[in-house]
Amino acid sequence: MTDPHTNTLMTVTQTAGRGLALVFSFIIITVIGFFVLDEANARFGALAISVAIVALTKPAALNARLGKFGWLIDLGLLAAFFYSAIWFFQVKSELYTGFYMATPENITAGIVGMLSLVALSVRSWGWSLVVMAIGFAVFGFAGPYLPAILEHFGMELADFMQIAWYSFDGVFGRITGLVADNVLIFLIFGAVLERTGAGESLIQISTALTARIRGGAAHAAIVASAIFGMMSGSVAANIAGTGVFTIPMIKRQGFSANFAAAVETAASSGGQLTPPIMAAAVFVMADLVGMPFAMVILAAALPALFKYIGLFAQVYAEAVRLDIKALPKDQIPQLTGRDWLNSALVFLPIAALMVAFISGKSPAMAGLVGVVTAIVTGLALNPDFRREPQRILRALADGGISSAQIMLAVGVIGIVMAVVNETGIAIRFATSIASVGESSLIMALILAMFGALILGMGLPTLPAYLIIAIMIAPAIIKAGVLPLAAHMFVLYFAVYSSIVPPIAYGCYVAAPIAGGNPLKTSFVALRISVVGLLVPYVFVFSPSLLLVAGEFSWTELGFTILRLLAAVWMLATALGSADPRLGRLGKGQRVLRLAIGAAAMIPVWFVWAPAVLATLAVGLFSPRLQPQAAT
């Protein structure tokens, strides 16, 4: 039987954590609107508050095996970080002047601070990120004993603490500052938008607009998950939030449990790649490639569009294969004027955010405009939101918790970045892939793809992208790929690691909601995401698809769009085993279409041009097949 005093203490602790998260959101908003903080104070302060929020909202005592000992663990972790804070600010002036000297005292303080950060990040993100950070730290110390390709001079403990903790290249480095300054406000924005009722409104409108299309429920789910996925910053969080509505809706229309879960996972993953927010990765990418945010957003537009065209096509083909019809007219939801008015809950805040961007506001200020607009719109249009103004506080608390969790992840990544910079392993890795790229760029890209998928497994979008950007993006840039295309390439595969077995963490969230099998769901998600998986190769070889990368060519763009459309149709009908005109397809038809679709993706005119012509021929002259009953 649970001790009532323990339950009371747990409730008080978690309430205090949510209260601190609410304060964190207010601090973020206030600083953006009114203050300029010292960079070191801002970075350390954001991480310190984040440590406290995670310790309070996810106390170790929740683990029944730890029991009351969990409280001692949390007190120890908080005390350790507080102790490290004292020493950090004592040596801060030395960090600015470059005269920092390692002493046993400040090394000890750094170690306990780093250990508390790492331990608490496990509660937010599991072991994947921590194991990676530990692996890189071991690599840093073991340098002289490694094989020749990995060998380096190694590090002493004092050197490691200096670069990882007491410098502006590690835990408190530039990326930590960038996330604290520009990204956290968008996590608050997403939380506020969800609380205003925007999600329910979006699902209602999407369902009504797609009900006349075969498989309309799945199409509606794609739209809803895509829009909310671009703001959530986590595939798993978006699936958990929207999947409880969309997955049952897809199943009711006749799709299998695994397919319903796969659609939700694929759409939520794709949302992380959808402009204008792209799960806040757009701001980090713009900084890393040295381009304005608006240019990166523009570059992401067409790849995202074709990714979704491919997903819609796969769903439509599946509906044809299963003989799922559009809803009868008497069952189609009728949108009222009120429904259309409620659509402003979604689109007005996003529009306000984009107007702020275009008018030259900073990303943080544009995000703040979005937050304020979402709150005002919710109060104006949603009576429930007006009657319960405490929803605003809950939304800000939710945003504060999400911000704290992402800050811990970025802090842990700082350890990885410090080791990478000190050992030069990224340069060595880049040189190795570039040497492959000299003889075969496609082989270099395939190696980079597998590296990105492996490094990104189990991680949320932004941490996954950061690690892959420092390890793999330089490699394919050195192989001859344009910087923006290289970063977009690795971002795509960082995101798609959420659907790739054996980890496929997005599928492990979606499958239980649907009552399906996670591994089978991941294979279905891979199949229906095939265009999204191929699009990065297209914009590397045809960078005009990014609109702003390199020497733009309207001719190249036109031909690229033409062959992508052909590939989408051929691949969707081949993999879905059905064609809207012909019904269920035989094996010969499917093999033919798969070959044509693959050829259309190859950026050599004498390969793709016949494939486009063959696509027209298949569509116009194929013998009509009799539709068969679904099995």
Condensed summary:
By secondary structure, this protein is mostly helical. It has a domain at 567-631. The chain is built from 30 helices and two strands.
How does this structure look, described?
This protein is mainly α and 631 residues long. The chain has a domain at 567-631. It has helices at residues 4-34, 39-57, 69-90, 92-97, 104-125, 128-141, 157-164, 174-195, 198-210, 216-232, 235-252, 257-271, 281-289, 293-321, 337-342, 344-358, 363-381, 383-387, 390-423, 425-439, 441-456, 461-471, 473-478, 483-496, 505-514, 518-528, 530-541, 554-576, 587-600, 605-621; strands at 578-579, 583-584. A two-stranded antiparallel ribbon has the order 1-2. A hairpin with a 3-residue loop joins strand 1 (578-579) and strand 2 (583-584). This is TRAP transporter, 4TM/12TM fusion protein.
Helix content: over 70%
Characterize the largest beta sheet: strand count, sense, and whether it forms a barrel.
Answer: 2 strands, antiparallel
Number of helices: 30
Cross-sheet strand order for the largest sheet? 1-2
Low-confidence stretches: 627-631
Structure summary, number of beta strands: 2
Mean pLDDT: 86
**Rg result:** 25 Å
